[in-house]
Known about the structure:
The structure holds two protein chains of two kinds. By secondary structure, chain A is an all-alpha fold.
Amino acid sequence: MSVVTILQQLYDSQLGTALRESLIVFPLVEGLHLIGLALSVGLILITDLRLVGLFLRNVPVEDVLKGLRPWLLVGFVITFGTGILLIWAEGPKIWEIPIFPFKLLLIALAGLNAIWFEFQYGRTVSVWGKNIVFPNGVRIAGWVSFVSWSAIVVCGRLIPYLDKTIH
Amino acid sequence: MSTEAIFNSIQHSAIGDSIGAAGSLAGAISQLVHIAGFLLILSPVVLVNLRLLGFGLKKQSLPGLIKATTPQIWYGLALLLLSGLYTFIPSANIYYHNPAFWIKFALLAIVLVIQFTLFRQVTSVEHPKRSVAILTATTSLVLWFSVALAGRIIGFI
Lengths: 167, 157
């Protein structure tokens, strides 16, 4: 089954149709997708800038990683949850815009980068976090995350500009 | 002159005409600047409010966090103002008739007053009274999120 077939089934489903046609719920889901961004991407960009040494340098990196993690995860649950609902409602139209599959690829890259960072450096932060200069891998992971999440937001905001039928 | 007439003359001003003629690429860029401004303001707002609620960077000095994040808030406000004007000026008449636009700016006015009075006061001390801290953080978060929500809803009306 192709991606388009699945998206079309979601589009035609009861939930997809109800969401798309709702004058209140659909804008609310869009609004929550944006608000979730403040927690998810907002806090991850702060974390990234700490990893590369450009922000909150007086705050121990371990505190930043551990203190913000639960909240940015809450943010990602909101952003991904509402994102899935938006695809459910408008999937086939969004899929036609070339920037959308690219956005998904970038999300996959950012996700893999985060997993790699967690396994490679997450557990030993109490050791390397005390150094003045962090290991190269930490800084690279920070930059990869920063650049990919910024690009993901840019792609997302451009979606309505590349298809005038979407708000 | 009525508010509607003022909005109309803004739209038909020389600036309004030239932005209107600038095309959709410039419009898209201004929207990207708007969302960059959104993240610049909202991420420190979330960070400091979490701290006020006793979460996130809870071991950090409150005035210290304010000192570190205040520049971002100003940069964010500047980007939001410029890109917002760029979006507003050539289409002022449309916004005049959009209730979400008026709700957004009423909420924004309230949250900015709170940001520069109550919020500034409460975050200037190391250990604000717990109840006041929670009230301030909740009010600030709810209002900022409502501004964002109202802003997003403008496009649907």
